[in-house]
Amino acid sequence: MNDPVRLACPHCMTLNRLPADRLGDGPNCGRCTWPLFARRPVDLDEAGFRAHGERSELPLLVDFWAPWCGPCKVMGPQFEQAAARLEPALRLGKVDTQAHPGLGSRFGIRSLPTLVLFSRGRELDRQSGALSAADIERWARARLQ
Q1: What would the pLDDT profile of 47-96 be if each residue is shown by its tens digit?
Q2: Which residue segments constitute the domains of the chain, with CATH numbers given?
Q3: Which candidate, 25, 76, 113, 139, has a CA 20 to 30 Å from the CA of 2?
Q4: Catalytic residue list
């Protein structure tokens, strides 16, 4: 049986329901008609985190970063590359902890960059420090099994 998966649109935050086996078919949002997967991380604020991290059933890998952080700048392009390879198995998002300190505080982010993997609003695991795209992909896939 192919149960539907609820996932948030990265553009309008509307929840969409799709059969799990159709996630890789290039689906569009039922409301705004934009693609549900852009193969790049979604910039998250409080509302975006609620939509993608709490209401969506698709796992969410979040890069907590800041613009002044050197290792964050190094890892940014690597995270972009990982998004292209990990979607649609999971959504990747970025939280600028300088612009949205409440999210960094809420999750006890003490060092940057920090990756946190969420599933249905629950933290599964975290990893601090800059990683390559291959290491990000390997780490995320291992945590989802």
Answers
A1: 999 999 999 999 999 999 999 999 999 999 999 999 999 999 999 999 99
A2: 39-144 (3.40.30.10)
A3: 139
A4: 69, 72
Per-residue 3-state assignment (H helix, E strand, C coil) for 59-108: CEEEEEECCCCHHHHHHHHHHHHHHHHHCCCCEEEEEECCCCHHHHHHCC
- The residues near 82 (Cβ < 8 Å, ≥ 6 apart) are 92, 133, 136, 137, 140
DSSP of 15-45:
EEEEEGGGGGG--B-TTT--BS--SSPEE--
CA 84 – CA 81 distance, rounded (Å): 5
Distances (CA, A) of 108 to 12, 41, 55, 130: 28, 21, 21, 18
CA 95 – CA 104 distance, rounded (Å):
8
Q: What six digits make up the tokens of 51?
A: 């939509």
CA distances from 1 to 19, 21, 27 (A): 10, 10, 20
The encoded tokens of residue 60 equal 């969410």
Asked if 121 contacts 54 with a C-beta cutoff of 8 angstroms, the reply is: yes
Rounded distance between C-alpha atoms, residue 49 and residue 42, angstroms = 10
